[in-house]
Fold these 4 entries.
Entry 1:
Amino acid sequence: MSTVKGVDTRGGQHCETTALGVLLRHQGLDLSEPMLFGLGAGLSFVYWDSKNMDFPFLGGRVKPFELTRNLAGRLGLELVVRETGSARKGWENVAAAIDAGRPVGLQLDSYHLDYFTSKVHFGGHVVALYGYDERDAFLVDTEQQGGAVSTGLDGLARARAARGPMTARHRSFTLTVPRKPPVLRDRIVPAVTACADAFLAPPIANLGHRGIEKAGKLVPTWLGRTDEPRRDLPQAALLMERAGTGGALFRNLYRDFLAECAELLDSGPLRTGHRLYAEAAGLWTDVAALLTEAGERGDEECLVRAGAVLFDIARVERDAMRALSRLRDEAPAG
C-alpha cells in the first residue's frame, strides 16, 4: 500500500477544479474553486449536436484539460503531462508519482468507476489519485460523488484506457508550484480578458454568445428531437444544474470568481461583469426548470419560453463579456 501523506480530500463542485485544488493545496497553494475555474478561463458555451447523438448537449465550459493548461500557464506552474497507449506504462507513471509522495491527476471515463451510480460515458472526467493498494485506488472526486472515494484497480484501468469523445491516452499529470508564489492580483486581468475574447469572437456559431443564440433558436424544436421527452429533457436540465457544473451551467462558479476578483481589484468593469453574471446564472436555472417542465408535460410552450430566456442570456452574457474585456484598458486601483 502506498498513500501520499497530508492530502486534503475536500471535494468541490466540478471535477477538474476539484482535482486541481487537491494537487495545489498539497503544495501549500490554497485557492477557492471559483478562483481556480476563473484563472483557468474555464467558462464557455457550446451547442453540440450530431447525427450519432441521441439528443443535443449544452456545454458551459472549455474542453477537458484546457482549463488545467490555462491555469498552469497563468500561475507559472510546472505542468508535467504523461500519456501512453500502454496500460502498464500508464500505471507505472502514476505509481511513481504516488510512491514519490505526490498526488497525481487523472483524466478518464467515469463510466467505469465503481462509485459512480449514474452509468454514463464521459471521457473528460478528472480525479486526483493519492494512494493505492493491491486492490483499490484512493481518489478525490467532487462533493456530489463522495469526495474521498475508492475504486477497484481493474475499473480504473478500464476508465483510463477508454476511447471515445473527450478521452485521453492514460493521461496523468502533476503540478509544481514555483518557489515564489504567484500574485493573484496580477493574474486576474489576463485571465478574464482571455475568456471574454474567446466568448465574444467564437470561430463557429455553436460557441460563445453565438452558440447561446443558436440554442435559443433550436431548443423550441426539441420535442421533435426525441422519442422520450420525459427522459431526455429533464436529463438535459440535470446536466446543466447538477452534473459537476456548480449550478447554472458553470455560471455560479464564474459569478463567484468575479466577486472574489472585485474584492482584490477596484474595477467598474469587474463589478458590472459580476452583476450581469449573477443575472445570467439565475436565467440559466430558469431554463433548466423550463426544460424539466417541458419534458414532464410534453409542453412545447415551455420550450418556446426557454428559447426566449436563452436569447436574453445571450444578450446579458455578451454585455458582461464586453464590460470585462475593457479591463485591459484600465489600471484598477486596489
Entry 2:
Amino acid sequence: MTAPASAPTPAARPMPAGERVLCAMSGGVDSSVTAALLKDQGYQVIGAMMRFWPDDKRVDTFDSCCSPDAAYEARRVAEQVGVPFYLLDYREQFQRHIVGPFLEEYAHGRTPNPCVNCNTKVKFDELVKKAKMLGCKYVATGHYVKRVENERGDVEFWRGDDPRKDQTYFLWGTPRDALPHILFPVGEMEKPRVREIAAEKGLLTAQKAESQNICFVPGKVQDFVAEHIPQAQGQIREIATGEVVGEHLGTQFYTLGQKKGLGLYQTHKVRHVVHLDPATNTVWVGDYEDCLWNGLKASAANYLIDLAELPSELEVQVRYRTAPVKARVIRADESGFELEFAEAQFAVAPGQSAVLYAGPKLLGGGLIEDHVRTLPS
C-alpha cells in the first residue's frame, strides 16, 4: 500500500463524433438531460429503459422510477430528443440479484442497500454487456458522478460537483473493466442547472419529482419484510449482563443503533440495538457507547485501482447520507479489508457498504461485516 497521493486534475474527455452510446433512461430529468446532451455532442444515442416491474406489479411499487408510466415518459423524451428507444426486460435478473438478496440479508440480521446491488449487478454489468451486443462503445447514465481520466489514461470515478447529489457511494461495486465504457454527462453539473437545461429543451420531465423510496417496496420496509420472513418470538437481552429486558417478533425488524420501538420492560431506560443474532433469535441492546465501532471489517471487496496503490490512510463512508471519516488500512486483499477509524463511529450496520475514497476519488468498497462479540451467557 502506498502513502496518499495528491489527486490528478480532471482531464477533458474526448467527444468522438459518431460513437454509439446506450443511454439508460429511467423517465426522470437526469437521464433525459443525459440523452439530450449526448445527442448534442454528436454521439449516436440509443435510449433504453430496463424493465424491472413484474406483470403483477403491486400498488405503490415502481411508481416514481422504472414504472410503466416512467417508460412512457422516457419514450416520449426519446422522441423529443430524436433518438430510438427500447424497453429491455430485466425482470428475472432484478428478482435474482436485488429482491432475493434483499430479503436474505434481513433474514440474517443485516441491513442491505439494494441500490448498490442494482448498480453493481444489473446496470453496470448486465447493461454494459447488452451495450456491447448492440455495438455501443459506451453506456451513459444520469448519475451525479465525474468521469476522470488520469495521467496514465485510466478512467476514474470522482464525486459529482453537486455535493448534495453525489452518487459515487452506490458505484463502488462497478466492475473495473467497465469503467472506460461508462459516461456521466451531468456529473459536472448541479441539479438546478440540469433542470434548466431540461426546461430550455422543452423536455417533459423538466419538473418531475425525484424518487426517494426503494422502488419495489410498497410503504414501509418493515411491512414488506414481515410479508416475506415469518415472525418468530424471541428475547431482547442486555449486552452487559445478559438480562432479559424485552421480547420481539424477529431480528429482521431491527437495525444497529435503533432506540425507538424496542418495547422494553423498563421503558424509562434509553437503549440502542447493539447486536443481532438470528441464530438464537436474540436482539442485544446496550448503552450508546456499546454501539461505537473503532473500525470495521468488510467482505466482497471491489477495487477501482490496483490493490498495491491503495493508500494506507484514506477516507471511508459507511452510510450514504453521512460524511466520510479518516481511517487507516489494517489489511486489504482481494476478498476484503479491515480499517481502523480515526474517531469511533456510531452503529456501523452490517450489510451496508463501506466505500473508500482518496479525496474526491472513488477507490472501491465492500460489505460491512458484524463484530465478533463476546456475549453474556
Entry 3:
Amino acid sequence: MDLVLNVADYYFFTPYVYPSTWPEDEIIRQYLSLLVVTNLGAFILYFFFATLSYYFVFDHSLKKHPLFLENQVYREIKYTVQALPWISIPTVLLFLVEVRGYSKLYDNIEDSTYGWPGVIFSMMSFLFFTDMAIYWIHRGLHHKLVYKHLHKPHHLWKIATPFASHAFHPVDGFLQSLPYHVYPFIFPLHKVVYLGLYIFVNVWTISIHDGDFRVPGFLEAVINGSAHHTDHHLYFDYNYGQYFTLWDRIGGSFKYPSAFEGKGPLNYMKTITEEKLNDHGGNGCKNEQFFSGKSLKTK
C-alpha cells in the first residue's frame, strides 16, 4: 500500500492538501491519507465492477423471482455505502503497520528467495491460505450465537445481485477480509502482486454474486463459483468457501450446485416463463414447491 500512498502524496496530498511543514512519513498524516485512499479505492472497485457485472452478466429475469426483494438493488447499494467506511477504519490500521515496514512485503523480484518461481508460488499460497482462513471465519459467522448479530444482514439477499457482494455488517466485512491483510505479515509477497491480488479478491467477491452462472466443466469440482455461492445464499449451510471447494469438502459442507442440476434460480424462472406461455391463465403454483419451506431454509 505504500506504493499507492507515495503516488497519492506526490500528485495530490503534498502539493494540494497538507501544509509543507507536515512530513509525509508522519503517522497521523499517513493514517488519514490511507483512510481517504482506501475508501476511494473501495468505492471505485465496487461501483465499477459491480455495475459492469450487473448490466453485462447478471440475468435481470431473476428480479422477478419470488425471493427477490422489493427495491433490493437500491438496498444492497445503500447497505454497502454505509458499511465500507466503517470497514476501512480497522483495515487502514493494518495498512498503516504495513506501510511503516512491519510486513514481509518486498519491492523487487530479486528480493524473493526463489525469484519468479517464488513470486508465482506466493500468489498460489495467498489464494489457498486466504481460502482456508475465510472458510473457517465464514462458517463461524454462521454459528447461532453470532449469525443474527453479524452475518444475517448479508443473507437478506436470497437472490443476490453483484451489488450485494459488499453488503455486509462492518464487523462481518472486516473479519472476512482479515486473511488478505494478515498474509503479508506471515509470508513474503511482492508489493505489486499484493495490490493485484487485492483487486482480484474484490472482483471475485462481486463475481460470485452475479447469479448461478457456470464455470468450465473440468473446474466444476474445484472452483467455488457463483453457482456454489448462490446455493449458499439459498440453502444457508453449504459452500462457505471463497475460491475453492476443498475446505467445504473437508468440512462436510459441500453442496453440488442446484444450477448444475437444472434446478437453480434461472431454471426456475425459465420454467415459470414457459408455463405462462403454454398455460394461458395458469398460476404456476406447481413450481412454487421448489422454493417451499420443505426444500429451502429461509433463516
Entry 4:
Amino acid sequence: MYQQILQDCILVVHRYCIKRKEVSPVMLGPAYNHTMETPASFILVGIPGLQSSHLWLAISLSTMYIIALLGNTLIVTAIWMNSTLHEPMYCFLCVLAAVDMGMASSVVPKMVNIFCSGDSSISFNACFTQMFFVHLATAIETGLLLAMAFDRYVAICKPLHYKRILRPQVMLGMSVTIAIRAIIAITPLSWMMSNLPFCGSNVVLHSYCEHLALARLACADPMPSSLYSLIGSSIMVGSDVAIIAASYILILRAVFGLSSKNAQLKALSTCGSHMGVMALYYLPGMASIYVAWLGQDVVPLHTQVLLADLYLIIPATLNPIIYGMRTKQLRERIWSFLKHFFDHSNLGS
C-alpha cells in the first residue's frame, strides 16, 4: 500500500515538472524523449526590435546580393575563360568567389522573403541544412584565405621556385584538404545540434538558422555544442590567422628588401588586396561569434543579429570590388570580357 502511494506521488511530481518545464529532458530519460514532438518547422523572426525597418533592410540586402552575384560571376567567368589567369592565385580566387555566392544564396533570399512578405517559416530539415552550409562555407573560406596567403608568400619570397612548388597536383591537394578539414570540423556540430530535443518554442530570434539562436530553443543543455562551436572556430581561425600573419611578416620583409621601388609598390598592392579581404572575413566573423556569446545583457539582440547578417553578405559583395579594382591583370580581363559581351549584344540587336 505504502509503495503504491509513493509511486503515485512520484508520478504526480513527474507530470507537474514536465508541465512547468523544470526537469531537463536528459534527466527524464528515454520515456520523455519518446513522447517529445520535434517541430515540423521553425519561425524566423528576422531582426528582433527592427521590424519597422525590415523593408529598408530587404532593399539593402537585395542590392548587396545582386552586386555579389554579378561581381563574383564576372570574376569566375573572367578567370575561367582566360588561360593567362589560370595561375594558383586566380584559381583560389575563383573558388572563393564560388563559395561566396553559395553562402550568400543559402541565406539572403530567405531573409529578403522574411523582411518583405513576412513568410518566416522554414522546415526543420531545411533549417539545419542551411546552418550546415553556412558553417561549412565559413570553414572553407578561412582555408582558402590561408592558401592564398601561402601563394603570395611563395610568389614573393621564392619566385624562382613558384611553379615547382605550386604545381597543379599541389593545388588540388590543398583544395581537397581544405574541403575535408571543413567537413570534419562542421559535421560533429551539425550532428550535436540536429540531435538536440526541441520540445518548446519553435520561434528563432534570428533571420537565419544561426547555431546559437537554435541552441537556445533546445530542451536539453546546449552547452556541449556551443562550447564545441566556440572552441573549434577559435582554434581554426586562430591558427589560420597566426600562419597568415607569419607569412605576411616574411612577405613584407622580402618586399622592403627589393631594390626597385616599382616592384615594392606592385607587391604591396597585391598584398594589400589580400589583407583587406582577410580583414573583411575575420574581424566581423569573430566579432559576431563572441558578441553572441556575451548575450543581450552586454550587446542588444538586434545588434547581434544584424552583425551576423552583414557578415554573410558584405565580404561576398566587396571581394569582387577589391580584387577587380586592385588587381590590374584581373581588371583588364574583366573589362575586356564586358566589352566583348556588349559588342556582341549590340550586333545581335
